[in-house]
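From the pipeline queue, job 12 of 40. The input is one protein chain; the requested action is below.

Action: predict structure.
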Amino acid sequence: MEAEEPSPAPGGTEASSSPVATEATPTPHRVCMVCDFFYPSMGGVENHVHQLAQCLLRLGHKVIVLTHQYGARTGVRWLATGLKVYHVPFAAVYDRVLPPTGLLLLPLFRDILIRERITLVHSHAVCTMALECVTLAATMGYRVVYTEHSNFGFSDSADIHINKLCRFVLSQADTVVTVSHTSKENVSLRCHLDPTNVFVIPNALDATQFRPDPDNISPKGCINVVVLTRLVWRKGTHLLVQLIPEVCRRFPYAHFIIGGDGPNRTEIEEMVERHQLQERVELLGAVQHCDVPSVLTRGHIFLNTSLTEAFCIALLEAVSCGLQVVSTRVGGVPEILPPHMLLLTEPEPTALLAALSEVITFARKRPLPNYHREVSQMYSWMQVARRTVKVYDQVALRVRPTLSDRFHGLSELGSLSGMLAILIVALQHLFFNLLCFLRPESNIDLCPDFLFEEWASRRIKVEPLPISERYMSSLSQRRHFVMNGS
């Protein structure tokens, strides 16, 4: 059954102009975004959370971000546009994800929500902080929205356990948002969710940052194939290892530019060394998001070999920069753009080789088409924010479930799983009441809000800095702001 969307049909087909400075709303929300993945880490989820938060601020809503510490980056940090980020003092143990914290996160999480007068918690992606905060926020009586950014299988042992965990966690959320229709079907089946309570709001991009630049193509005289991805198995690095040597053998003028890092980078390096392709393959390592346009515009073709994708923002960025895209036909990729903008193939070396060979041959004979204007009219982060606000509005009108209602819903998870879930929620509820007794809400100081409207009206300019340095411990200690006329 198709869910009623919170705004026009998904897929980003509604045109939008560039974001306005501030748009007042009659009922502003106070939102806490929660995710293990955030800056200074780089990736699609990080970009989604950052862009959505910035646009919600422009629409007049209060937004903070809650994530874990990254190295020495802990405590409260401010992004240069007024977005407040809490780096809680918990360290990641694997792939930027925290270990399970049990109830350790609850006291700090409660204090932050009260200090910032939060009314709604919005968690993102399958990660420890996001999943734990869904159940903790529901225990404290907050509205909860969860956005799923990935697809998972049904047969693998790891996927089976993740699906059971997500079914328990998402049963405590008020509603679920996905980034594609394929992802909606996937999460609805995996977690036994009502499809009418799952909304589709796609990702987007800031097309003003991703423009074609023919003068930046390098090296000259080659057909440059760009790959920007995390070098992990699910992104198809094993396909790259098999594909690149054969492409270089067939086309002496083909040149690969690979940006990204990950545990499978060693396999790429070994392939380059084994086939002596040091002059044909560039390994850039991790690429900062602000440097992505300059890397994309070096190429003619963008190659995506992912084995699973809910929605690939990198494809939008590549097409917006004027590249021809060759991608595997997986997940929500076919929904992103019209067929004439993407060349899709099966996630197999022979199929990818045939598709890439076709595009390389075509690019050698004539210029590739430019779809920058079409992409800029299809996708806008401001439209994503407006549609997300409509979901918030619907959630705010719902009746909060009682503790007995939550227990009744958890009992449907199964005899053993249901009892374990009820025990976890009961312990959270008891600990929460103990915290309320030991540290009443009246004893917690409230934080003043960032005056976004005043900041925008005074036309505060931000000094150009690398994105990895766009944090400040306070507005007074780090002079990143220069006020006109002050």
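Job complete. DSSP finds 16 helices and 17 strands in the chain.
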